[in-house]
Amino acid sequence: MSLESRIAALEAKSDICDLKARYARICDDGYDGDAIAELFIEGGSWASNTYPEVSGRLAIARFMREIGRDVFPWAVHLLSNPRVDVALEDGTAVGRWDLLQIATQDQDSVLALGRYEDRLELVDGDWRFTAVRVDFSYVGTLAEGWGRGSSGFLGSV
Q1: What is the rounded CA–CA span in Å between residue 13 and residue 92?
Q2: Which of 40, 59, 97, 135 is within CB 3.0–4.6 Å of 44 for a Cys-Cys bond?
């Protein structure tokens, strides 16, 4: 691989990590559905092992507003261990992140653990999500904890 190709791949990975950080920040600032949806291609999708898949920017925007209003009125997404594979010749990529989310739900302090796997596409020089999927392995309250027998474990991820 040429030096130029290697630099282009590194820049793409950096841009994709920045996109994911914007996604997390928008979620943490109140789940602005329209702002989140703009990070996706028009026909993009968002899916999880705990919610049904939603497709298209309008559906993603509506879903995210509902999450912010009805599920997690306050949340902090902490993303770690980024792994990004870029196919520059195709203008596509796959990104993976581990998630630690602290949030409030009803009157409870909630902890969620999961893994994101995102599909991305280069559109007019900017990376956009084509599909975001988060699989949660644990979602539970701090009061219940995550010790043996906790109901928060959703299976291995």
Answers
A1: 11
A2: 40
3-state secondary structure of 21: helix
pLDDT digits (tens, 9 = 90+) for 58-87: 999 999 999 999 999 999 999 999 999 999
User: H-helix or E-strand containing 14?
Assistant: helix 3-28
Burial class from Cβ neighbours inside 10 Å (0-12, 13-18, 19+) for residue 111 reads middle
* Three-state secondary-structure class, residue 36: helix
H/E run at residue 122: strand 108-123
> What are φ and ψ of residue 65, in 5° steps?
-60, -40
**56 DSSP 8-state letter:** S
Q: Does domain 3-141 have CATH number 3.10.450.50?
A: yes
Domain ranges, ordered by start, for the chain: 3-141
For 7-28, what is each residue's pLDDT tens digit? 999 999 999 999 999 999 999 9
For the question of whether the overall pTM of this predicted structure is more than 0.85, the answer is yes
